[in-house]
Each structure stands twice: as C-alpha cells, then as structure tokens.
Design brief:
The chain is of the alpha/beta class. It is 47% helix and 12% strand. It has six helices and six strands, in the order αββαβαβαβαβα. A six-stranded parallel β-sheet has the order 1-6-5-2-3-4. Helix 5 links the parallel strand 5 and strand 6. The longest helix has 38 residues.
C-alpha cells in the first residue's frame, strides 16, 4: 500500500490554527477601530454641546440677564464619607446671591427624591432658607432624576419657557443644549467651580452624559415622570 495516498496536503490551504489566529486578529482590529470611532463621536458631541451653548453661560452677575424664574439643578448635599459636597454649597450660594441681586424672583429646585432618605430638593430648600431666601419663592421638583427630566418638567409641569439655569459651568452646557431643543429660552449662571472636586469618574460621567443628552433630544425622547410628589 502506498502511504502517500493517505497524507493531507496543506500547501494550498491554511491550517485550522492559522485560520483561527487570522480571525482573532480581524476581531481585535475591528474592536480597536470601533473603539477609536466611538471616542471620536464622544469627543465631537462634547465639543458641539459646549461650543453651541457657550454664549448663554454667564460668570458675572452684572452681565447676566434677569429672568423671573431660575431652575437650580440638584446634586447631593454630601459626598461619600459624609463630607460636604462643595458643588452643592456653591450652587446654593450662587442661587441666594442671584435672588438678593434681583436677577431672579422665583426658584425651582429640581433634583432626585428616590426615597425618604434621599431628597435633594428638600436639602436645597433648607440650605437656601438658611441663606436668607424666603420659602414662598421656592418650588420643589421631586422628580428631577436626570438633567433631561429637570429641563423637560420645567416646561411641561411648571409651565416655564424663560429660565435661568444655575449649576457649575460643566453642567450648564448640557442643560442649555437640552433647553435649546425643547423650546425653552434659557441662560445659565456658572456657580463657583470646585477644581479639586473633579474625580476621574466625574469627568468620564459628564463626557458620556453629553452624547446621551443628544440621543435623548434627537432620538430616544424619554418621557419624564409628570407627577410631582415627595417620598416620605
């Protein structure tokens, strides 16, 4: 018996192991390309949100146009470990100052109230009263779970179409972009920033939140909660 009749000739075809390696390399290259394109899209979205709203953000009170109503975007009063959240403190101080300077007359405090133990609007109300803002001008929005919710509810629930947004500069750009595409005439006042308060996680979160805001505005159109009820 001729043994050559039973041999397999691989001269004109890839071995199974080489085929497998080639597929793996293609997958890796495709993954790298996809990651690169995703990064480009995220950076472009961030650039456009900031660029298209920069003329509506004010850093000096004397340059800020007056509006009857302000929308204050919520954040937690404390950070992990119970330490004071300076983002919260500076937003409240900026709000009180604008009220006392006559730049705003009424204030909507919009934030998360997902349990009886976490109530951003109530915390903001207490802080502003301590700063001399009368309770009678404060309206609490308990369903501002996200910035998109806060902005849409300001128009749909509280019937406001001309507002001043109060938050830190990085946050104002996203809120203004949403306002622009939801038919709300808005300007924003930049509360004092916290240079040492930005963790890597905070920066990444905002960089991802801006493309998400664009998706919400142009494609996803999520419906906010329309009931305004405090959880006790």
């Amino acid at each position: 018996m001729n043994p050559t009749l039973y041999t397999t000739d691989y001269t004109d075809q890839e071995t199974p192991s080489r085929v497998s390696m080639r597929q793996v390399k293609r997958i890796i290259k495709g993954g790298i390309l996809l990651a690169f394109l995703t990064m480009i899209v995220i950076l472009l979205c961030n650039w456009w949100v900031v660029y298209s709203t920069k003329g509506q953000i004010f850093f000096h009170i004397n340059q800020l146009p007056s509006n009857d109503v302000a929308l204050v975007l919520g954040t937690s009063k404390h950070v992990k470990g119970g330490k004071e959240n300076l983002f919260f403190r500076y937003r409240m101080e900026a709000t009180a100052r604008l009220f006392k300077e006559g730049k705003i007359k009424y204030i909507i405090l919009s934030g998360n109230n997902d349990s009886e133990y976490y109530n951003e609007p109530s915390d903001m109300k207490k802080a502003l009263i301590k700063l001399g803002v009368p309770e009678s001008v404060l309206t609490l929005d308990y369903a501002g779970y996200r910035t998109f919710d806060s902005v849409v509810r300001c128009k749909e629930v509280f019937n406001q179409e001309n507002i001043t947004i109060i938050s830190q500069n990085f946050h104002n750009a996203r809120a203004l972009y949403i306002c622009e595409h939801e038919g709300i005439n808005a300007v924003a006042f930049a509360a004092q920033d916290v240079p040492d308060g930005y963790s890597f996680r905070t920066l990444i979160r905002e960089y991802l939140a801006r493309p998400r805001a664009m998706l919400d505005v142009h494609f996803l159109r999520p419906q906010p909660v329309y009931i305004n009820r405090e959880i006790k």
